[in-house]
Amino acid sequence: MIICMNAAGEAGVGSVLVSFNEVDGIPATANKWLMTDILRGQWGFNGFVVTDYTGISEMIDHGIGDLQTVSARAINAGVDMDMVSEGFVGTLKKSVQEGKVSMETLNTACRRILEAKYKLGLFDNPYKYCDPKRPARDIFTKAHRDAARRIAAESFVLLKNDSPDGNPNGNPLLPFNPKGNIAVIGPLANSRSNMPGTWSVAAVLDRCPSLVEGLKEMTAGKANIMYAKGSNLISDASYEERATMFGRSLNRDNRTDQQLLDEALNVARRSDIIIAALGESSEMSGESSSRTDLNIPDVQQNLLKELLKTGKPVVLVLFTGRPLTLNWEQEHVPAILNVWFGGSEAAYAIGDALFGYVNPGGKLTMTFPKNVGQIPLYYAHKNTGRPLKDGKWFEKFRSNYLDVDNDPLYPFGYGLSYTTFSYSDIDLSHSSMDMNGSLTAAVEVTNTGTWPGSEVVQLYIRDVVGSSTRPVKELKGFQKIFLEPGEMKIVRFKIAPEMLRYYNYDLQLVAEPGDFEVMIGTNSRDVKTAKFTLN
Fold first, then answer.
1. Which of 478, 486, 485, 487 is nearest to 457 (CA)?
2. What is the CATH number of domain 421-534?
3. Which residues pair with residue 439 across a beta bridge?
4. Of 147, 276, 303, 389, whose Cβ has the fewest other Cβ atoms within 10 Å?
5. Annotated catalytic residue, options 37, 52, 162, 262
């Protein structure tokens, strides 16, 4: 994270938002070491710093002082702009008069904000970004909607795609031909407001077709889309109310759970294939939406089990903004497509993926655990002094669990395709590298299936021995390639010493001589490995 922030500064970022958390007992909003010594002094940042929403007044609850005190501490630490707390506008005059804030500090903060406005051209035209004609001209145009549809489809992650009869050599369920009777069932199947996802505050929700609406439009004259809600989002009405705020209501149905289920099963039995639109509402994840249970909500999981009992092929279209625990679903549902919250064109993009107009090639940007007890669970973890040995499920006095293995359900970087890819062993241009040198790691990637498709080739590196403990692997690069069936491409990654640097105990950015492991693969778990030495 530190390296990412440093890179943003080197790229000339104009402003930085302060986090809410504390660092070594000092809230970040009042942390002079963080904002002045590191951000400006060590990294050379010269833009302006703004608090997060009410970041200054929230320090009162941290026990740092009253509004005048925390406001003075913030500006003295390096904050230039107060977002919403009104601590600057309400107390800085008094703090200057009392000598708690100098005029030089106040002028410096003002100068940084004025410089930003000048660079944005606001002195020449203060209404530069207030064109009333812009929304009609530039927003929600056909070109932008087409781009949104394409981007959404490319972001979907295919988690599973087996034959519906369980035959390991059978044809995968997806994609399927849009014909016959298609049942679309679930509390998220006919919701417009949840398609864009949380914090899409400027979205016009009625412009976002629901999954049912989108599929009906796409299959007109070819298939019969049949809809049933099947269940509410959650059995607990008060819980659902908390999970559907800010206009994202799912219009809770007052019928009993059994009545909703019976209606869904009646629709399901008359269908040729079932699309189960389940998971989270957009307000169940994101800011201020923590959960202690990461299963698909109770009534939805029961609905899914009953749909599978009909014997009809079932595709789980999973809406979520976070990792969920999907052990039962992975074991029993033949196909799972994670569609996140795909935006205004999500309904059409989902149809594109289900019907094979697009081959989904998205990869997970997070790790999906098997159990909440595994959390925190991430690919770039550090070893303990007693790591579990490779190939072992459990070993006494090692770092493991009694009831579940250490592996995630889906690792970071995971994602299937309608085709398959093979990787050659890694070819390193050199076995060692000097501090001012570089080397190349290359693999041959071949499309071994029958569909054209994209693959995200991922590069991970491990610093085997360091002066400080190091992660077991770190993502250092990736390349997205497109391959026709049978086509092979050589993917090359240039590895230079700056890619091997990290902040040591003294916060010095260093690359240390020693052995390194290179890993290249389709995700963080399934990789080819090679080694080199940094001299």
1. 478
2. 2.60.40.10
3. 495
4. 389
5. 52
